[in-house]
Amino acid sequence: NILINYVSIMVVGFSSWIYAPYLLTLPMELPGMNPNRLAIAWALIISMEIGGLSISPVVVGAMADQFGTFIPGFLLFNVGAWLLVIPGLLFKEPSHQNT
Fold first, then answer.
1. Cα distances (angstroms) measured from residue 33 to each of 23, 40, 52
2. Integer angstrom CA distances of residue 72 from 52, 62, 64
3. What pLDDT score does 55 carry?
4. Angle 71-83/35-67 helices, nearest 10 degrees?
């Protein structure tokens, strides 16, 4: 169904970037952060994100060739993504003390 395909593509595109503003805001709140360190943190976050988005289709495709189904590749990245939720939930908000 073409409608389901388009909706799926939109959901994947939306969910691939919806967390970016929150993720890029976190380094700004860390103690001792200055503009130079912030630029490096942002560059690292975005580079890792694009690297992951670039390599995941290749890995899923290779695993599909190996196992004959896409399920193991999808499970690998699905579990990996959900494992990233754990540190996000455990991350404590920095204290904002005026000194």
1. 15, 11, 26
2. 17, 10, 7
3. 93
4. 150
Amino acid identity, position 41: A
Q: What is the pLDDT of residue 94?
A: 64
Q: Is 72 helix (H, G, I), strand (E, B) or coil?
A: helix
What pLDDT score was predicted for residue 75? 92
Q: Which residues of the chain have pLDDT under 50?
A: 99
Query: String of b and e for 39-49 (b: at least 16 CB within 10 Å)?
Result: eebeeeeeeee
Contact 22, 34 (CB under 8 A): no
CA distance 74 to 81: 11
* Token pair listed for 78: 């699905």
DSSP summary character for residue 75: H
